Amino acid sequence: MDVTFTVNGRQASVAVDPAEPLLEVLRERLRLTGTKEGCNEGECGACTVLVDGLPLDSCIYSAAAASGRSIETVEGLTGLRVDHLAVIDFAGFEALVDAVDGIDVATGNGPIVSHLDGEAALKFVRQRQAEPLGDLDRVRQEQMALRALLVKTMSNGVLTDPAGLYRLLDAARSSVGVDDTLTNGRLRAVAAELRKVQPTAVRFVQAPIERWGSEGSQPVAYLAPYATELWSALRSDTLDTYLYQHSTG
Questions:
Q1: Phi, psi of 181 (to 5 degrees)
Q2: CA 132 to CA 82: how far, in whole Å?
Q3: Burial category of 201 from C-beta neighbours within 10 Å (exposed 0-12, middle 13-18, buried 19 and up)
Q4: Backbone torsions φ then ψ of 6, nearest 5 degrees
Q5: What angle do CA 239, 58, 39 make, to 5 degrees?
Q6: pLDDT < 70: residue spans in the chain
Q7: DSSP β-bridge partners for residue 13
Q8: Is 59 buried (19+), middle (13-18) or exposed (0-12) by CB count in 10 A?
Q9: Of 249, 239, 235, which Cα lies nearest the Cα of 206?
């Protein structure tokens, strides 16, 4: 069947199978590869697009259902191309933390640091109901855990200890999924570059949110107007200037 819809402001007409997911059409027919294939179950968010302004998982949303609708991908929203993607599930996250013998994070508002094994670390990053900002606080906790994992990996000689490196690579190999365009050669090159990275040099940046609201029954986050400055900074490699001008928390 033939369907016509608008993608990033331009009309597109394609022949699709009634059961064909929108993700496949965007990536394979329209070459909008910033929309990534991750879990293929509508859980990880890698395939999210806006359909008539609402975020939907394109891996489980049929292309036929998009007929007559307006679709916006990450390329249309930001003007950026997302080259690659890595996804890890809950069990994989636990395994990575346990592979480095746990991580140390501040789990409260005070200076007390807690040592967490994989199970406890997963509970920490998934917590949201008890936090005042809900998902935004959960994002902060996820960033704290990732930094702690990086610190443990780099500072405890994991990358130079054969046994420790084996445990880490074994956990990563069995639990981390990447997009279909990220080759083994590129992965090896990234791993080699990461050995030069110091944890203190890593910065986490969140898209600026102006307010929370809803579209129909779906809760949404509305980006602040200056989000366009972030996209521009990423394109021009001037992120330091953006971070100096805008506090990102």
A1: -105, 0
A2: 31
A3: exposed
A4: -105, 130
A5: 80
A6: 109-111, 128-134, 156-161, 164-165, 247-249
A7: 4
A8: buried
A9: 249
Distances, alpha carbon 209 to alpha carbons 57, 133, 199, 230, 246, in Å:
21, 12, 26, 12, 12
Q: How many CA atoms lie within 13 A of 68 on its CB side?
A: 1
How far apart are the C-alpha atoms of 2 and 29, rounded to whole Å? 13
In whole angstroms, what is the distance from residue 146 CA to residue 166 CA?
20
- Assigned token pair, 78: 């930001």
Helix (H) or strand (E) holding 124: helix 118-126
* Domains recognised in the chain with CATH numbers: 2-78 (3.10.20.30), 86-201 (3.40.630.190), 209-245 (no CATH)
Which runs of E-coded beta strand occur in the chain?
Answer: 2-7, 10-15, 48-51, 54-57, 70-72, 86-88, 103-105, 114-116, 176-178, 209-215, 218-223
In the numeric block, which tokens belong to residue 244? 């100096």
Nearest to 243 by CA among 210, 205, 215, 196: 205
The reported pLDDT for the residue numbered 128 is 67
Structure tokens at 196: 């030069």
- Are 33 and 181 spatial neighbours (Cβ–Cβ below 8 Å)? yes
The per-residue pLDDT for 249 is: 47
CB 172 within 8 A of CB 96: yes
Enter the pTM of the model.
0.72
Q: 110's torsion region: left (phi>0), alpha (psi -120 to 50) or beta?
A: beta
Q: Which helix (H) or strand (E) holds 7?
A: strand 2-7
In contact, 119 and 90? CB cutoff 8 Å = no
